[in-house]
């Protein structure tokens, strides 16, 4: 890690890993990049704490989808360490566990095609390379991570967002079928954040429109002297 560069920490979404950011990272050559992950933790707080332990003293934090929940909990645990928060395709609305009982490796076949297709813009549903990349991430993470993430209890933290002091950027997509514009507006209003809508894009912004996403984030960071 280069000491004279600022650091950006990238937190992935449900059943995604570092490959989510493959085409975004080249745009952040002026930053040290740290990948958050789902190695350990059965609650949002535990996942946040485990990732904080692998981060430098100060950093910019960018969370996608489920990673947005984890990123916010990292900030709540250590607000003095987070220089800026970027929330992509995420929400503060509550949701309880989505599966009951254990999922075994024998049962697990990765994310279904129907679920993957719903996460992309309608024009990309036949993009087999994109769908395969998404499926491969889930397969790599496996049954244990799927069960643990599906069991997460995501309580609303909308009120907590009102106390965030660092600059916040909220990014949504005009054709996101998993997270609504209203959800992004709620977050932006609570945190007095900048809200940007990515055009001609579905939920998987870091993979569908990495150049557009990265440019928006870089410009915003530059305006905030980061």
UniProtKB/TrEMBL annotation:
The keyword Hydrolase applies. The keyword Hydrolase applies. Residues 8-214 form the AB hydrolase-1 domain. Gene3D superfamilies: alpha/beta hydrolase. SUPFAM superfamilies: alpha/beta-Hydrolases (SSF53474). One of its GO terms (molecular function) is hydrolase activity. InterPro entries: AB_hydrolase_1, AB_hydrolase_fold, AB_hydrolase_sf. Keywords: Hydrolase. This is Alpha/beta hydrolase. It comes from Zwartia hollandica.
């Amino acid at each position: 890690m280069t000491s004279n560069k600022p650091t950006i920490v990238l937190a992935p979404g449900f059943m995604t890993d570092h490959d989510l950011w493959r085409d975004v990272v080249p745009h952040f050559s002026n930053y040290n990049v740290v990948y958050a992950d789902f190695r350990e933790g059965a609650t949002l707080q535990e996942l946040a704490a485990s990732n904080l332990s692998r981060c430098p003293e100060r950093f910019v934090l960018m969370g996608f989808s489920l990673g947005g929940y984890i990123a916010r909990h990292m900030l709540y645990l250590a607000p003095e360490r987070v220089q800026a928060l970027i929330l992509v395709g995420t929400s503060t609305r509550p949701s309880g566990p989505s599966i009951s009982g254990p999922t075994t490796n024998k049962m697990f076949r990765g994310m279904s095609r129907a679920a993957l297709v719903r996460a992309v813009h309608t024009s990309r549903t036949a993009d087999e390379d994109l769908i395969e990349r998404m499926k491969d991430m889930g397969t790599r993470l496996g049954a244990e991570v799927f069960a643990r993430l599906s069991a997460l209890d995501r309580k609303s933290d909308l009120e907590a967002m009102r106390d965030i002091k660092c600059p916040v950027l909220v990014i949504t997509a005009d054709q996101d079928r998993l997270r609504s514009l209203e959800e992004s507006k709620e977050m932006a209003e609570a945190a007095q954040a900048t809200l940007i809508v990515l055009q001609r894009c579905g939920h998987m912004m870091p993979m569908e429109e990495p150049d557009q996403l990265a440019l928006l984030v870089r410009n915003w960071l530059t305006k905030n002297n980061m």
